[in-house]
Amino acid sequence: MSNFQPGPEHKFTFGMWTVGNMGRDPFGEPVRPALKPLEIVRLLADVGAYGVNLHDNDLVPIDATLADRKRIVADFRNALKQHGLVVPMATTNLFSDPAFKDGAFTSNDPKVRALALQKTMQSIDLGVELGAQVYVFWGGREGTETDVCRSPLDAGKRFRDALNFLCGYVREQGYALKFALEAKPNEPRGDLYLPTTGAMLGFIPTLDYPDMVGVNPEVAHEHMAGLNFMHAVAQAWDAGKLFHIDLNDQNPGRYDQDFRFGAQNYKQAFFLVKFLEDVGYSGSRHFDAHAYRTEGAAGVKAFAAGCMRTYLILKDKAAKFNADGEIQMLLKELAAGDSATDALLGSYSSTRAAALKAHVFDRPALGARDLGYEHLDQLLFELLMGVR
Ligand code: GCO
Ligand code: MN
Ligand code: MN
Hints:
Layout lengths: L11 E4 H4 L17 H11 L3 E5 H4 L6 H18 L5 E3 L18 H20 L4 E5 L4 E2 L7 H22 L4 E5 L8 E2 L4 H7 L9 E3 L3 H6 L4 H10 L7 E2 L18 H14 L5 E3 L9 H27 L1 H11 L3 H4 L7 H9 L4 H6 L4 H12 L4
Parallel strand pairs: 1-2, 1-10, 2-3, 3-4, 4-6, 6-8, 9-10
Antiparallel strand pairs: 5-7
Helix pairs in contact: 2-4, 5-6, 9-10, 10-11
The structure holds D-gluconic acid and manganese (II) ion (MN) (2 copies).
């Protein structure tokens, strides 16, 4: 890896809403013109992305007629073909329309819940038609400003019922589609239900078809909650549930920043890329971010190119870290045991338990050991800064 050029093998994808973001915020009007779906496809192909993901209404307006839908989808498919882009993931917009102002699947109003199911089935059909294999659920409005409105137990039950219904739908259609649940602690609601990836992982086994359902962790969302993103990803991976990932960046304790991948926390981004590459994660590397509001067309391209380039640079750094003799020797020493101690560890047996109970440890020596993490962490810093 020397030129950090993105290729299809890297599976870099962007949401239509990311490079299409017009820079609107709660205080200011859009600073960039709306891009047509075909312009988004062209832009992403230009910067070397592999795929483009979408909400139903990123492509087909919510009030489109069936004839409109047919024409729009046909044009989009042509553009994808022409530019060699795929659509690995799709999702539903269940947050923009005022009908969903108090939630979609968790709304108190049965009509809203039914509408959410209808909209999602139609959007699943669209996603599958475009080739999506992963379907993301981000419950942007599934939450509260005040808990006076409903019990979180009712909300949880309704969310479960909705996912069970939709799993049933996907199974009956014979779609090869997996669901990926995306947690976020807050924004746009004061509090969102199931606020972390860990919470989602606890919820999945309560579903009727847990094997069909995994997670879509997002860097910014765990950082908003002040958590270590890579740890959440590791837990998802360990559970066999890392179906998708949303890459961006974010400082803790801020609004939902959606910065370019690696823009803020180089070190966390490094450990994340190293983790994904070390374990052999083979899904999309999906960027769910947008250019700073200061940017125009060139800035948006620089943003998209930067996300991918940063990933590849960090991948290269991860390989250097793994090949660094001194770093690897130090890590090996840290975990080194001796045959006497090794015999005390392992699966349970009554003999082992008895031996362990009888063993005399030199506890003060264990406490006095200098672990050398200061030196190791400095070596990492120097490697990342390119002076090693
Ligand atoms: C956000 C979310 C969304 C979702 C997207 C796909 O904070 O706005 O991250 O961008 O990822 O709706 O589900
Ligand atoms: Mn987000
Ligand atoms: Mn996201």
